[in-house]
Write a structure and sequence with these properties.
The chain is mainly alpha-helical and 129 residues long. It contains five helices and three strands. The protein has helices at residues 41-53, 55-63, 67-92, 99-102, 104-127, and strands spanning 8-10, 17-21, 24-27. The chain has a three-stranded antiparallel β-sheet, with no helix packed on it. The longest helix is centred in the middle third of the chain and has 26 residues, at 67-92.
Length: 129
């Protein structure tokens, strides 16, 4: 009779476990389970930036199962930071809630400008780093 090969084996050097399929040992490689999240604007922007400009960091986070956690943290931080900056800029401007009724166009233009400024700050602080 011949020696039967073991069904599984572990490479002592790398620690990778292999299973027998036919005459070949195939590595048991699987990505860790990741939390499912819904990405908002900031999460999608961060993901795109990592994919195309920080490929090594993206790959490491993906393989270690940390990518979704990172994106969730970035988008939550970005949301709260944008709201905080909008509040600060709004307080510094001459904008009041009464202007919504009296001078609506001015109020809309000013609020859009404040939001754009806040998002630009957040992009430079969190998204594109």
């Amino acid at each position: 009779m011949y020696n039967e090969l073991p069904k599984t084996k572990i490479d002592e050097k790398t620690g990778i476990e292999y299973h027998l399929e036919g005459d070949y040992y195939i590595p048991n490689l699987a990505m860790p389970k990741q939390e499912k999240i819904i990405l908002n604007k900031y999460g999608r922007m961060r993901l795109k930036y990592l994919k195309y400009h920080k490929k090594a960091e993206y790959t490491i986070m993906l393989m270690e199962g940390m990518l979704n956690t990172h994106l969730k943290e970035i988008q939550e931080t970005a949301d709260s930071r944008v709201q905080q900056i909008i509040s600060e800029l709004k307080a510094k401007s001459d904008l009041t809630e009464d202007m919504k009724n009296t001078n609506m166009l001015y109020w809309i233009v000013t609020m859009n400008s404040i939001k754009e400024q806040a998002e630009e700050i957040v992009f430079n602080e969190l998204i594109y780093v």
